[in-house]
């Protein structure tokens, strides 16, 4: 049960700010006001607050009162199943974004998004959405006509919608779709009981085969085990024979080696005997005395050869010395001849220089001294004359200036200065001449002095050259004497050396003559010595060879014995061929048998493995077949369940449809009797929801035969009846939007009375005017205000009833006596 406690609207459509607080404990509340003031806006706001829906699906932003600023909100407070719920919705922000807020028993719920809030409300009403809410709790004039006048199909749809059957139809449709899907799934699913049974049989067969294969394998394994032992014995025997063959081979090898040794030893003994024979022959005559005598003869021969060689060497040396001395003597004589020539030249030069020295005068220095003194005197004289001349020249210049006619300021005290001037000039000329003479003389004296000085220098050079020539002469003399003495000496020496050489030559010639005999003797002595020495060596080796031969003989005898023994051993170790071949054959045969049995065992094992695999395959096949069967069974069950659901829903729906007309007819019959004050006693809906009414005379006629007003009453009765079926015993809100439009006062009163009698309903009625306010417990006026928007004012039914409306009402229809506003309405400002 839902009961509205208040609806607050701010800036919604035509309303500026209003709070509607209807009666909550069973009374009827009326919303009064002129056309277009905002009465239905309250219902629109209520629906928006509850479900977020707007009329005709316009956007929520269209709810904002045009020209208004600030908040837009609707706050609905209501009680549902004993719990107080506050739903607030509105627009906020620059873009008028919708928001929602839900408070349950004073605790704000976290619903978040708008959609979540919508879902929260629908859930709270037990899946009742906006359409259901309208069907159950709201009666609007618009729908009423369609309930009786619409085409059959539309009417039926409308009835079903208002009765909530369309929701059921949807559920049936969904269930049918699910049923079809389940059927399709089942049809497409593989698997069957036969298939599963066949798979099980296959598995059994495979298991039996695997068991047989295992037994075969075990038998083959046992056979292999038994034959393995025989093979081990054959192997052992064969290895024994093989070891013996190997031992015989080794003994034969040893005997061969020993025989080889014996042959070698015998050869060595023969060789030693031959060597002894040879050495015995070679050692004849090899005594120590013979060797000594041969050695002495050789020494003598060697001495003779040495002397011979020394004599020839001495001859060569002496000849060379003589030749060298002769050459030095020649060189010394040539040097002596050169020294004599040099002496002769030096003597001539010394004589020439001596002559030149005697030709130079002895007083040359004195002459030079006198010439220099005369030049000095003349120099002095020239100086005096130069002074005199300059003095005279100065005087003449001074005097000439004084007597110059162009000098007006000059004057002289002399009577005739020209005469004095002439005298001075003459004296000057004379001095000049004397000077020139003195200069010439001085130059002559100087030249003479220079010539004398040159003469003196020349004389000194001559003297020096003479002295040098004299010394040269002395030296050349000494050298010549010395060279001659040396030449004499060397000559003597050369002669002596030639003498010696000649003597050495003579001796050498004698030695050459003797040389042939000496060499022959030497060679004979050497040969004798070599013979004697080798014979002695052979004699020494003979003893050694004898010992060796003896040893070889002994070794050869021992080797013969050893060879005989080794041959005997080898013969003893020999293995008969038959035995060896037999052992080999036995081993091969045993190996082959084992090999064959082992192959058989492997084959059996492979067979068993295959059989096991086959078992696994069969198991898988069986599992799959069973799984398919299970899935199929599950799908079949699902299909059955879906079919059952669909059938149940369908049955239920059909039942609802079948019962809807009679049930509505029943409730509507009750209502129509009261709303028409007994003129009509029943309403009957057929299967097509076509209504027929029966009047108080018992006559039944289709609703279309009725007057417009009567038709409206029937429609209203049907509509309220539908609502009653929805709300059931629970009651609660019944919001009526202008239900009495086509009714006269009496009719309206009767209808109101019927409504008032509905049990447990909170009736809010939008009344275009205050036509039936005498039946209303609380009147709320919607007051227009162009500037601030319409608002709600509480009022008594009589005060608010406009005169114009009252004028049209039959006085008798009005039941006197106002219904006083309750305390709450009085408190509304
Ligand atoms: N967003 C809006 N802003 C301002 N006015 C609006 C807005 N939307 C609708 N209206 C106006 O609000 C007025 C109230 O409309 P409403 O349906 O509530 O009137 P009413 O009182 O039920 O009138 P009637 O008796 O004719 O049914 C109308 O005149 C309508 O044109
Ligand atoms: Mg309206």
Automatic annotation (TrEMBL):
Ranges of residues in domain Rad50/SbcC-type AAA: 7-203
Molecular function as annotated in GO: ATP hydrolysis activity
One BP term from GO: double-strand break repair
Residue ranges of the region described as Disordered: 810-829
Alphabetical keyword list: Coiled coil
Pfam families (UniProt xref): AAA_23
Gene3D superfamilies membership: Helix hairpin bin (1.10.287.510), P-loop containing nucleotide triphosphate hydrolases (3.40.50.300)
Coiled-coil portions: 439-507, 587-642
Subunit (UniProt): Heterodimer of SbcC and SbcD.
Family under the similarity heading: Belongs to the SMC family. SbcC subfamily.
Protein name: Nuclease SbcCD subunit C
């Amino acid at each position: 049960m839902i009961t509205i406690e208040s609806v607050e609207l701010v800036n919604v459509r035509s309303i500026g700010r209003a709070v509607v607080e209807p009666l909550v404990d069973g009374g009827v509340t009326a919303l009064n006001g002129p056309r277009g003031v905002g009465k239905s806006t309250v219902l629109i706001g209520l629906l928006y607050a509850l479900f977020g829906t707007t009329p005709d699906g316009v956007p929520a932003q269209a709810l904002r009162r045009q020209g208004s600023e600030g908040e837009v909100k609707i706050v609905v407070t209501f009680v549902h199943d004993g719990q107080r719920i506050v739903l607030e919705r509105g627009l906020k922000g620059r873009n008028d974004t919708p928001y929602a807020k839900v408070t349950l028993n004073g605790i704000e719920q976290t619903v978040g998004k708008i959609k979540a809030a919508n879902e929260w409300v629908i859930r709270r009403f037990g899946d009742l959405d906006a359409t259901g809410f309208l069907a159950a709790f709201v009666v609007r004039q618009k729908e009423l006509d369609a309930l009786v006048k619409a085409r059959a199909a539309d009417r039926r749809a409308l009835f079903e919608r208002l009765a909530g059957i369309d929701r059921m139809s949807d559920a049936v449709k969904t269930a049918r779709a699910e049923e079809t899907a389940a059927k399709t799934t089942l049809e497409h699913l593989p698997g069957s009981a036969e298939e599963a049974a066949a798979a099980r049989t296959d598995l059994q067969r495979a298991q039996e085969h695997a068991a047989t294969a295992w037994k075969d394998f075990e038998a083959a394994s046992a056979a292999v085990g038994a034959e393995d032992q025989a093979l081990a014995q054959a192997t052992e025997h064969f290895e024994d024979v093989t070891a013996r063959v190997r031992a015989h081979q080794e003994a034969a090898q040893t005997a061969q080696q020993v025989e080889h040794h014996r042959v070698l030893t015998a050869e060595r003994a023969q060789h030693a005997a031959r060597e002894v024979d040879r050495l015995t022959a070679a050692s004849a005559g090899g005594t120590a005395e013979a060797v000594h005598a041969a050695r002495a003869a050789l020494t003598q021969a060697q001495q003779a050869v040495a002397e011979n060689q020394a004599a020839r060497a001495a001859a060569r040396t002496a000849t060379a010395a003589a030749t060298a001395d002769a050459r030095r003597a020649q060189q010394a004589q040539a040097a002596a001849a050169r020294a004599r020539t040099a002496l002769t030249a030096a003597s001539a030069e010394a004589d020439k220089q001596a002559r030149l020295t005697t030709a130079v005068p002895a007083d040359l220095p004195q002459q030079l001294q006198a010439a220099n003194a005369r030049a000095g005197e003349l120099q002095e004289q020239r100086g005096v004359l130069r002074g005199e001349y300059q003095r005279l020249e100065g005087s003449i210049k001074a005097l000439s200036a004084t007597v110059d006619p162009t000098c007006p300021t000059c004057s002289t005290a002399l009577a005739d200065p020209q005469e004095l001037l002439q005298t001075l000039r003459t004296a000057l000329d004379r001095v000049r001449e004397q000077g020139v003479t003195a200069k010439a003389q001085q130059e002559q004296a100087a030249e003479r002095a220079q010539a004398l000085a040159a003469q003196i220098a020349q004389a000194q050079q001559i003297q020096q050259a003479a002295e040098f020539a004299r010394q040269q002469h002395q030296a050349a003399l000494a050298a010549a004497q010395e060279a001659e003495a040396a030449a004499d000496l060397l000559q003597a020496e050369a002669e002596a050396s030639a003498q010696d050489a000649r003597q050495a030559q003579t001796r050498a010639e004698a030695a050459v003559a003797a040389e042939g005999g000496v060499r022959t003797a030497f060679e004979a002595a050497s040969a004798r010595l070599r013979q004697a020495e080798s014979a002695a060596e052979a004699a020494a080796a003979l003893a050694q060879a004898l010992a060796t031969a003896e040893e070889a003989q002994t070794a050869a005898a021992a080797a013969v014995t050893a060879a005989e023994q080794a041959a005997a051993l080898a013969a003893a170790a020999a293995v008969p061929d038959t035995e060896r071949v037999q052992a080999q054959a036995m081993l091969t045969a045993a190996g082959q048998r084992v090999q064959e049995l082992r192959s058989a065992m492997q084959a059996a094992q492979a067979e068993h493995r295959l059989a096991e695999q086959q078992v696994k395959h069969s198991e898988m096949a069986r599992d799959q077949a069973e799984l398919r069967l299970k899935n199929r069974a599950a799908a079949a069950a699902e299909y059955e369940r879906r079919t059952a659901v669909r059938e149940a829903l369908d049955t239920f729906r059909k039942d609802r449809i079948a019962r809807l007309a009679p049930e509505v007819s029943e409730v509507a019959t009750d209502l129509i009797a009261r709303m028409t004050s007994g003129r009509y006693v029943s309403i009957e809906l057929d299967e097509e929801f076509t209504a027929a009414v029966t009047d108080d005379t018992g006559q039944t006629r289709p609703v279309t035969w009725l007057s417009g007003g009567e038709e409206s009453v029937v429609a209203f009765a049907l509509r309220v009846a539908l609502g009653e079926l929805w709300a059931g015993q629970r009651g609660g809100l019944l919001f009526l939007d202008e239900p009495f439009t086509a009714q006269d006062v009496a009719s309206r009163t009767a209808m109101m009375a019927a409504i008032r009698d509905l049990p447990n309903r909170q009736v809010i009625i939008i009344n275009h005017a205050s036509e039936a306010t005498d039946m209303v417990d609380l009147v709320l006026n919607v007051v227009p205000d162009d500037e601030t928007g319409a608002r709600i004012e509480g009022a008594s039914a009589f005060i608010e009833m406009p005169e114009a409306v009252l004028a049209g009402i039959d006085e008798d229809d009005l039941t006197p006596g106002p219904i006083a506003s309750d305390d709450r309405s009085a408190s509304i400002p």
